[in-house]
Specification:
This protein is α+β, with helices and mostly antiparallel strands. 44% of the residues lie in helices and 12% in strands.
Length: 255
């Protein structure tokens, strides 16, 4: 049943869960070292809406963000509620991805170290050389042209266009990464394992020895196994475990 057809109480419950989950993702990104100052941004389409999304406000460190601090943004980029609007580039990146890529209900943009390091390399690619990397086989779009800060519609549309061919992740040259998903749990699970895969690759590359690539047919088979229903359920269990740890150590994230 579509959320838009649900009664007000379930809609409000879904919206509350989105706020809590997005705050949890931001808090955990700090714990993992994926944040960069007060920059970068996570967003999620508001349940029951097509043209509004939640996003972290500019000026807040991710370690202090609570569910109530998240800003609701409309299709014109106006902050409908919240303390502060999002960081200026956030609207152009997130709005256009949400608008042009229907499956991207969640958009996570970071400059996390190891994935970003690969975007700094000429023809930098996540290679099929590790089981974890195969989770993303044929799922990454590579935007190899850096055009400065995303401060206009054309830049946001260009980034969104790279994800319109069925990819769920974009590597932005000389910049960072965008991870999308249908739920916050799925997107954050991808974000976590993407950085782990990139970390392992950077370490392997640092040895100067040739990397051993997994054959294409095996890589494809493994990727299919990793996006199965049981594996996607695993991402929900992962995210629920992370929230339990936050409830123990930083319960104010839900406020």
């Amino acid at each position: 049943m579509a959320l838009a057809n649900l009664s007000p109480a379930p809609i409000e419950d879904a919206r509350r869960r989105s706020r809590v989950d997005l705050a949890a993702a931001l808090r955990w990104a700090v714990r993992l070292g994926y944040h960069e100052g007060i920059c970068n941004h996570f967003s999620a389409v508001i349940p029951g809406e097509d043209d509004r999304f939640l996003i972290n406000p500019h000026g807040f460190h991710w370690s202090e963000i609570r569910a109530s601090d998240l800003v609701e943004v409309d299709a014109e980029g106006n902050a409908v509620d919240g303390h502060e609007p999002p960081e200026p580039t956030a609207f152009f990146i997130h709005y256009h991805i949400h608008r042009l890529v229907p499956a991207a209900k969640v958009v996570l943009h970071t400059h996390m170290p190891y994935a970003t390091a690969l975007t700094m390399l000429e023809d930098g690619r996540l290679e099929p050389t590790l089981q974890t990397s195969l989770k993303f086989y044929d799922s990454i779009a590579y935007d190899d042209e850096y055009n400065g800060l995303a401060l206009d519609d054309s830049e946001g549309e260009r980034i969104a266009a790279s994800l319109q061919s069925g990819k769920r992740i974009a590597f932005l040259a000389n910049h960072g990464v965008v991870v999308t998903g249908e739920t916050i749990a799925h997107a954050f699970d991808d974000l976590y394992y993407l950085e782990r895969a990139c970390q392992a690759q950077v370490i392997a590359m640092s040895t100067g020895r040739p990397m051993r690539r997994v054959p294409q047919d095996i890589a494809r088979m493994t990727a299919d196994q990793m996006v199965s229903a049981s594996e996607r359920a695993q991402s929900v269990r992962h995210f629920n475990a992370l929230k339990r740890l936050l409830e123990r150590d930083e319960p104010d994230y839900q406020d």
